[in-house]
Write a structure and sequence with these properties.
This protein has 823 residues and is an all-beta fold. The chain contains three helices and 71 strands.
Amino acid sequence: MLMLLSVLSASGQTDVLTHRYDNSRTGQNISETILTPNLDSATFGKLFSLATDGYVYAQPLYKSNVSFPGQGVHNVLYVATEHDSVYAFDADGQTTTALWHVSFIDPSAGITTVPSDDVLTTDIVPEIGITGTPVIDPSTSTLYVVAKTKENGSYVQRLHALDITTGAEKFRGPVVIQASVAGSGDGSSGGTVLFDPLRENQRAALLLASGVVYIAFGSHGDNYPYHGWVLGYNAATLQQAAVFNDTPNASSGGIWQSGEGPSADASGKLFVITGNGTFDADVGGIDFGDSFLKLSASTGGLTVADFFTPFNQASLSAGDMDLGTTGPVLLPDQTGTAHPHLALGAGKDGNAYLVDRDNMGHFRSTDNSQIVQTIAISTNGVYGTPGFWENNIYFLARNDVLKAFKLSGGLLSTTPASQTNTAFGFPGASPVISANGSTNGIVWVLDNSAFATSGPAILYAYDATDVSHELYNSTQVASRDQAGPAVKFTVPTVTNGKVYVGTQNEITVYGLLSPLRAQAGLVQTNSGTPGALVTTYSMGFSSPVAASDLLLVAVGTNVPTATITSVTDTLGNTFTPATSFATNTNWGIGEQVWSASGKASGTDTITVNVSQSANLHVIIAEYSGVATANPVDAGVFGGSGATAGTTVDSGPLATSTPGDLLFGHVVTGQLNHTFTAGTGYTLRQTTPTGASAIEDRWVSTTGTYHATFTLDAADYWICALVALRPPLTPLTSLTLSPSSVTGGSSSTGTVTLSAAAPSGGAVVSLSSSNTGVATVPASVTVAAGATSASFTVSTSAVGSSTSVTISGSYNGTTLSATLTVTL
């Protein structure tokens, strides 16, 4: 039996309330009806991003149809960061501004996150705040989360209970996490081991089971003294309900599980896997390093009800070969077999262990024959909890490929049924699966191996019935789909047609694309500088341009009076300014962006003409999927003024069209700069002289945006931001059915677009020529990816037959239909 916390809501949407979907930690969402194995890079990609203030180690959680005071009803993504923040975001990107945001630090009062240096390891950088994935109780609308802080030299960990609609603390929280057990182990004093809030790492996800919030702890980089702790708190009162230490008379035994949380079965028994540490239970001790543990709740604590420890535990611990690098997956009942209740886990030795939860086997000094099965998954360590779907088990070890093993008759196949060709570096991945029951299974994994160099996370999707069939990866259209910088051990959240990826500075959101958005992206760029004062400068693209694409020319000058008089090209396109000419006279620089919608395809050379001799810094770019008529939605620019600096900001720009391309351009006074793109943007091109750069991003909703860059050294600068409209999706029809009704009854109206609505949907304005007879809502929204939507026309009784015109308007097109209202 699965203890599910991925809940199908009343609206038919799947809520994700705990790490990897359920308390059995299977990693499967079997209520996904939108995403199917038919997806590929032409139909699926990055939709938008949500900026965060720190690394996101915790898996984002999802709750549908949450009512926010004064803000309406939203599907919500809850995100926790290492900067000790929790966010509530609109999960559909209707706004990218947080619905609420709470922070548990106050630097002015000496309350900060914990610097990595304080815990003597760079496992988590550059700060430690919230690491473990929170858990949500839908019955009380409460999110539980543990935050770590440094407070005027002291270290504190607290359990917070937050109202999911406001972020306000509940149940008289937060409570400071404190605990002690009798023992003589590391760090003990007078026969007592105290919980150490500095040394203990709240890495594992939280667990909510039987009205208790359970919190597990391991170490920061094996820096002593530390122990494996599991603490329980009453979910309604936040009073401590249980305390367990797995090495009270020895050391280590951290419960970290690469971020996976403790598991729980239907009876409320807890399961964890411990890491390196002392094991002496075979000789009457109570220390359980490198062990599967089954914990039973009792008054005032947790006790070991059963356990399994590998025969070579001593050598595993001595060689830093933790067993506890995965969490235990409680597999669905294997009815008709000798061992119907199974737990599955793996470790750094590359082995998977299948254990009978009813008789775990304890310890044998010679081998592991007392458990159900031991099989070699990889010659490398397994750092990701396996995923389960339809009796398939998915593993992805470090420096290895994704492998699918069959579960049959209560045993795993000893070789993979299928596997991929793409090897992932350290740490491998924790696979999750989306499916519609037993069909349309997709395995999702994140390649986070570039985390140490802040390279991007890479999202992969594979056919769950045969993982050798890759469906998608985010490098296929990198200019469109690149995720934020990777964070090791993160797990994607897949629900309701979207995939949410936590990174170092954002949540990158993927989903099905409208046909137009799927084709949108940066095609090519080039840049150049003449190296002398000129009045004309020409340069071309390396490949032919397309007639349907937009051409952008970003120009910087070192003479503020040298205005750009014209931009031309060899294909005869007409270029016009997208922004006004901007200057910074404190250093003597000028800047302007020009644009032209291509009308011919072929090899193209672009020429920039200026009013007087100047040194020019020119970047040219070709974009597909941008409006071909009146492409500029809005533009703005800002400058550093009389003060040099490293932080560049265009100033605010309000957009009016959903789905805009934001194009940022910076020009500096001096040369040889290294530029860093702003949050949510991708750096696209830098001039050879290092005096100018461009960046871009796509936004799904209207709002106020800034272009920002960071310079490697202080300088004077000008920065422009241009918002470019997506292609228009014309309104092609408005129909009424029936077109004649008796007064007091209703008709159904339908609006249809020429192509699928963009991300964020298409809002069609509605009106009635006679609201005394027939009324319509102010608007109807065609959902993203859909081509039509319906609305209700309500009528009143009439004294004679009356004709009413019902109209709909979208993207400059207005269509009408006539409704006849009769006696």
